[in-house]
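quick one before i forget lol
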Amino acid sequence: MKKAIVTGGCGFIGSHAVERLLSEGYQVTVIDNLSTGRLENLSHLKDNGNLKIVEADINDMANNLPYFENVDTVFHIAALADIVPSIEHPESYFRSNVDGTFAVLECARKMNVKRLIYAASSSCYGLPSVFPTPEDTAIDTQYPYALTKFLGERLCLHWSRVYKMNITSMRFFNVYGTRSRTSGTYGAVFGVFLAQKLNSKPFTIVGDGTQTRDFTYVTDIVDACYTVSLREDISGEVFNVGSGNTYSVNRLVELLEGEKVYIPKRPGEPDCTFADITKITTQLGWKPKVTLEDGVKKILANIDYWRNAPVWEPTSIAKATEGWFKYLGK
């Protein structure tokens, strides 16, 4: 039986990765400090004898090292996300996303782990001018979250080259789906909109809503990571993972159905995110399966998950994003 570690396995993407790996017959160890992850995300798997959950910080190399023994693949997904907190607390983000990645790499290196998949971010492209955006687009990080995720990627590729480790970096585009975060931080559009819908509040649309995003359903993200994990011949590579399309925020609101209100456009945000997935489809034969329309249906069928999420309104959003305008504005 193959063994895998999923860092951040109690989180949004991580919990879906755990679910997939268990379904494929893996023994899975989750390492998560539960700062943003939730045990509830894995509660439906609690009786699975092949799942072990370790509550620990990924930086704790001494205690975590034994868990990496005889592991086939590490899926390194643990990270701090969101833009505003990364601007206000850059040290926390550097410790989690850079130091944490270093610690995971060292544990994997010392225990001769066969394979490591790194969850990178398309935010590294900043404000690209080419769409769809290929992997060789110039890096232009706009805020600390994007920078720290890119630095984590550079560490992974460097360890792959110097220590001959089998490592691949996957740049995720606008991931959404069931179990996405419900924390008190103002962030991803789906969490904000779903809480607003549950509370009969208007959707707060940034700018005029014509900006487009490459909304990629979480199971497609996990499928891409699992697909590349099986390819021992691929290492030291970077792959975009996207939906194969780009959708306007206005289209998303149409699918969610509800009233809307507009709030000011924010600096440092692209008008479009759209992954060029030619490389991953050509080299891995991977293709996304879930359209935005089908993905929204899946989310609405599980909307009660966001019942206790914070409800954002224009005034509270303005307060929460003051740092955004202060530091990223011209």
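fyi The chain has two domains: 3-175+216-241, 177-213+245-273+291-328.
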